[in-house]
Amino acid sequence: MAQDKKAVEAITPINEDFGQWYTDIVKKAELVDYSAVKGCVILRPYGYAIWENIQAILDRMFKETGHENVSMPLFIPESLLQKEKDHVEGFAPEVAWVTQGGSEPLAERLCVRPTSETLFCDHFSRVIHSYRDLPMLYNQWCSVVRWEKSTRPFLRSREFLWQEGHTMHETAAEAEQETQRMLDIYREFCEKYLKIPVLAGRKTDKEKFAGAVATYTIEAMMHDGKSLQSGTSHYFGDGFARAFDVKFAARDNSLQYPHQTSWGVSTRIIGAIIMTHGDDNGLILPPAVAPIQVVVVPIAAHKEGVLEAAASLAEKLKAAGLRVKLDDSEQSPGWKFAQHEMRGVPLRIELGPRDIEAGQCVAVRRDTGEKAILPLEGLENGAKELLSALEGGIFERALKNREQRTTACADMAELEAAVAKGPGFYKSMWCGDRACEEAMKERLEISSRCLPFEQERLSDVCPVCGKKAEHMIVWGSAY
Amino acid sequence: MAQDKKAVEAITPINEDFGQWYTDIVKKAELVDYSAVKGCVILRPYGYAIWENIQAILDRMFKETGHENVSMPLFIPESLLQKEKDHVEGFAPEVAWVTQGGSEPLAERLCVRPTSETLFCDHFSRVIHSYRDLPMLYNQWCSVVRWEKSTRPFLRSREFLWQEGHTMHETAAEAEQETQRMLDIYREFCEKYLKIPVLAGRKTDKEKFAGAVATYTIEAMMHDGKSLQSGTSHYFGDGFARAFDVKFAARDNSLQYPHQTSWGVSTRIIGAIIMTHGDDNGLILPPAVAPIQVVVVPIAAHKEGVLEAAASLAEKLKAAGLRVKLDDSEQSPGWKFAQHEMRGVPLRIELGPRDIEAGQCVAVRRDTGEKAILPLEGLENGAKELLSALEGGIFERALKNREQRTTACADMAELEAAVAKGPGFYKSMWCGDRACEEAMKERLEISSRCLPFEQERLSDVCPVCGKKAEHMIVWGSAY
Lengths: 479, 479
What we know:
By secondary structure, chain A is α+β, with helices and mostly antiparallel strands. Helices cover 37% and strands 27% of the residues of chain A. Chain A is built from 15 helices and 23 strands.
């Protein structure tokens, strides 16, 4: 059928033009629509449902670790933004300013929050009095605005949805521990639920968050070898607390500044899902966040009893806790196959008259396309096993891609050779000097991704300056 | 104890100064904190948790009726806002304008959404092609901004959280039906879950939403007799569709404009909960949205086994699906009682050494203060029964307040007498002329609340002009 082809042909092959493939997917799988404001996208039902599933899992993980949700205002008065010097320098160039309210110009302009450290600290200064109020473990789900020049759905937009955690602690050690704990929750979330392997480590001073003492990151490698920063967790020391005069009466009755963290994951992670798992046929969604985990397609649906059998099978799978869609639309089976493949539905169940007679159905995994004949009796378990196998499969495939594209480099020649081979992670030693980090960016057009927690000793010297190496660092090019 | 008193004395008596009582509650029950921007509040964990519970219930009701969530941008270009004439006239005077992005002035200023009809219609114009795409049943959870002059937490703020549903339909009849269906969901939500009786009806043309053909409303009466508009549902006809050129190929292949609705409930509803159910001791939260439904307070907690018994009792109640807090803090029982009463926890369970010995506990309802001795065996059911009794009790009390403050008035003299007695609902007939509606506002300082669906015949003529009466209308003064 013409329509069958239309659905599939419209996607650019993944290895022909990865950027165009990505753009095709986000539009044709109906994840987003572009809005009237450049760089601000509309999340359509299918795209937003992925975000709702992400929210549900992360929110549970946050609450299980004692965090509470709050809601902060959208606007930050300019004077408040300016209280912490490094922070304002980092963010002021890319914020949107409200200068008029109703028909009157504002006495002080307000920035639309690019992140909310300043708002949280202003609040903390009023509600933290004693060590008994600590730790204060807050999170909020909201959107933030950064006036980016070049934009791309999910990856870089002028407005994006995220969660931002903000916590205050009695001691530096406790805050450091929180910073690591939340990074670890992000790592677990990516690997266990999204099936995206991540590299965890610390950002260099050059790449850390504006105003932070230390920034920790998880970096995922996309299909094309480029890196995507998928979650960050920041340790602030008491810098913001001093700037905002947040103090508490300590156990010894002295007045002290609390120690702070913040951490965030955004809708960028949907971009990571697309670019880690997708293929020539479209999206491949990890079951934990897929809006539809199983699609049931009746074959020869006009024949007696087929639609009814398909419907009751769908109900049975739903009752087992799966998210199921029965596609009883008028389209041909072939069109439906292509459509649901493009939209990344992990498992397809086909059910025709002969299947019904034989008490079985055909199950097709989205990642491998493998067909399995499954008995209808106990299909819930069979479907769950296939979903679980798919989870293992896409994780392994992503891991293998990362391994193939990761090169350990002992010196500059090896780095140059690795970069020439194509995008990936390039491991090397580093002296710790910003000058060498900048030189690397200049010479090889790569940036530092992180200093991995799992350090190796590849050589004794920094490949740039030849001085003593302090760390192993991972380089790459990033989205 | 001094602290016991402090917690309670700090609230102004409800009948002494209702406004101050309200302000005391929202601050001292830790629902909100004021932010650095006038009229924008911070929802603290306890206040936000109420909103999360409201969201969970409404979101389920929306999804059960086929609605899908989406996310629209925060910004509306001025040219887009201006496309529908009545709409822009209604909203332009109270929007916040972004005029600068990063370091550059914007070519076109952007308003921060006060509501999103224009954004949805712009999107609909791109995604609606055929009758097969209809109905399109969308909702979003977000915040909106209206630059109000005088503000009050929950009731009127410059930024507030809400949900806005936006739907498009093949026929006017179907859209009208949707408008009514969603109002009915709001009514059910208020009465069944929040235990707030509401009056449902249609707004007059003067009071309807900017750009709507008809606005339907549910009006709740607060403790002081004033009215609070608690949810609205609008029917737009095809006015916006024409303005935004949204067209679809109908079943007969002709190009037609779809018919539209929108509907919303906001954090105002938390103000309604406070002002409907609260009393001199503070908040009274309906169990369905209370962050803590049962607080367990150990008595003589230093005695052996008391804390353990209280903890296991709390676990047992949690396992039965209740939201439970064990208050094992160092405060005195009296302070805890006052504190949790102020915060509106529906049920308190006290457990001391003698109770444990007797296999029982003391259960105290927040609304009546009644104490009941309950056996520990089967306490889950006993607690649920008391919560259910409280639900009935607070609904009845609110209904009684409304009945006592509702007066049927046959003529102007009766209206004047009723208004003189104090705030309430004043029912009268009305000719349907805007001039008479405005005259009423002028003379008695009351506004029309709605034309109730349940109409009565109180007289034959409009009390203002003496012409033939067309409707029964309800007047009141509103928050």
